[in-house]
Amino acid sequence: MSAHWWVIANPYSGKKGEVAGRARAALRAKSVEFDLFESQSREHLADLVAEGVAKGATHFAGVGGDGTAHLIVNALMSARPPSTPTLAILPAGSGSDFVRTFALPRRIEEAAGHLTTDTVYPCDVGHLRGSFGERHFLNVADVGVAAASVRLTNRLPRFMGGGRYAVGFWMTLAGFPTKTVRLEAGKRSYEGAAINVVIANGQYFGGGMNVAPNATVMDGMFDIQVFAGPRRLAFSVMPKVIRGTHIHHKAVKRFVAASFTLECDPEWPVEADGEVLGRGPITGNIVAQALNFKI
């Protein structure tokens, strides 16, 4: 028996006004059973998820980018469904990096066909705590210059596509100083100068950069990387991040752990899945296999 999907579309993803219609047509073409809703705000999206859980929905799909998936995951974790929920993503955002880990189609029309099968992948979810409260994330969190670049990136024209992430980063880097951080990750630690700290669950971020090539979303561990040393090293590190060949660079300190504590400059911003949460310091832990991801 095929699943019935509770589908939530972000009308601000992709080309404005087209996302919900494209998703509806694609799902009907694949004979998928679904209810589809358009979210009008973050609060409305959370209410839609809670309504789905209350009505017994077990299969949820987000039509949008990583930010849309981020909000659905947080709403699911807050709603505490009685069984492990299944999440699918029909990509419509300019980033949509999480699906790259699974080499899934990046267009709604092709991705819709995956909702007709039963294949899922047990998926961990990250949990963060800080001055902003508590938040969950699906893909990647950043503290430092990459997080600071998000606000600028979001103001750049959407016609730039994934390229606006790189432009936003390099523009932000010019005025972002290195600071001392202290990281406790499992039984290991690091204290020293840094410009960014990545806490990865998935492999890709920033419009396709392979920041954590060895990460897996079902091992109960974060892949944490401290980008250490002076700012000038970014010019040799970042081209390698695009290809995922940076992890042996002298400026990159890598840790694998189920939990961490990060002390950093209180002005350093924190982002997760492309959503700016607040400022550091932060602590975090993995919630192992919190959902089933539809592949």
Spans with pLDDT under 50 lasting ≥5 residues? none
Second CATH tier, the architecture of the largest domain: Sandwich
CATH fold node name of the largest domain: Tumour Suppressor Smad4
Total discrete domains: 2
Shape: globular
Radius of gyration: 19 Å
State the secondary-structure class: alpha+beta
Kindly estimate the percentage of residues that lie in beta strands according to DSSP.
35-45%
Q: Span from first to last CA?
A: 18 Å
Q: What's the order of the H and E elements?
A: EHEHEHEHEEEHHEEEHEEEEE
Q: Average the pLDDT over all residues and give the rounded result.
A: 93
What share of the residues lie within helices?
A: 25-40%
Count of β-strands: 15
Largest sheet: 15 strands, mixed
CATH class division of the largest domain:
Mainly Beta
**Tally of separate helices:** 7
List keywords for this structure.
alpha+beta; Rossmann fold; 15-stranded mixed beta sheet; 7 helices
Short description:
The protein has 7 helices and 15 strands. The chain has 295 residues and is α+β, with helices and mostly antiparallel strands. The protein has 2 domains: 4-118, 3-Layer(aba) Sandwich (Rossmann fold); 129-289, Tumour Suppressor Smad4, CATH 2.60.200.40.
Commentary on this structure:
- It is a single chain.
- With 295 residues, the protein is α+β, with helices and mostly antiparallel strands.
- The protein has a 15-stranded mixed β-sheet that branches.
- The protein has seven helices and 15 strands.
- The protein folds into two domains: 4-118, Probable inorganic polyphosphate/atp-NAD kinase, domain 1 (Rossmann fold, 3-Layer(aba) Sandwich), CATH 3.40.50.10330; 129-289, Tumour Suppressor Smad4 (Sandwich), CATH 2.60.200.40.
